[in-house]
Amino acid sequence: MNHSCTQNRVEHIASAEQPFHFVDSGLSYVFLVGIKYYTCECGRIIADIPAIKELMQLIARDLVEKPTSLTGEEIRFLRKRLGKKQADFAHDLGIEPETLNRYENEKTPISETSDKLARLYYLAFSTDQMLSQERKALEEILANWKSSRESKKITKIVTDNEWRDLPVAA
C-alpha cells in the first residue's frame, strides 16, 4: 500500500499566534505568517512560500542592518546567499577557512572586523535590488579612493541647525 501525502494532507494558514517555523531558511529563528502549509499524518510538512527569493533577500537585509553582532548561522546564511563556498568566502574576508568554519559553527565568536566586512561584502556583491542605492554609493567611494597621506580641507556650513557642504566659489 502506497502512502500519498497529497491525499492525506491537511491545509493550514500560518498566523501570528501559530506562525510557520521556516527551518529551511538556514536560520533557526525565522517564522512566517500568512502562508499556506500542509501537514501529513506521516509527519511531513510542506510549505507554499511565495516570492521566496524576495523573502530571502529581506532576511539577508535584516541581518546586514542589524545593530548587534552576527551569529555563526547568520554568517553562513549570508555566505550561502552569495553562493560562496566556505574557503572562497574566507579568502574574500581575509581570514583562514578554519576561522570561518569556527565562526559558522559557533566555536568562536566572530571578530568585529570580520562581522563588518561580511556585511559590507554582502552589500557590495549581492544582487538585492533594494540595496542598489547603498551599493552605488559604496562603489563610488571605492572607485574614487586614492592612496594618499594628504588631507583635504573639509568646510561645512550650518543653516537653521542643518549642516551641509559649503558651496565652492566659482
Description of the molecule:
- It is a single chain.
- The chain has 2 domains: 5-50, no CATH class; 53-128, lambda repressor-like DNA-binding domains (434 Repressor (Amino-terminal Domain), Orthogonal Bundle), CATH 1.10.260.40.
- The protein has 170 residues and is α+β, with helices and mostly antiparallel strands.
- The protein starts with a helix and ends in a 5-residue tail after the last strand.
- The protein is 41% helix and 15% strand.
- Helix 2 packs across helix 3.
Distance from N terminus to C terminus (CA atoms, Å) equals 87 Å
- The helix content is 40-55%
Radius of gyration: 23 Å
Beta-strand share of residues:
15-25%
Count of helices?
A: 7
Count all strands and give the number: 7
Uncertain ranges: none
Shape: elongated
SS-based class: alpha+beta
CATH second-level architecture of the largest domain: Orthogonal Bundle
Give a quick account of the main beta sheet: strands, pairing sense, barrel closure: 3 strands, antiparallel
What value does the average pLDDT take? 85
The CATH homologous superfamily of the largest domain is called lambda repressor-like DNA-binding domains
CATH topology of the largest domain: 434 Repressor (Amino-terminal Domain)
CATH class of the largest domain: Mainly Alpha
Q: In sequence order, what are the helices and strands, one letter per element? A: HEEEEEHHHHHHEE
List the domain count as a whole number.
2
Lateral arrangement of strands in the main beta sheet: 1-4-5
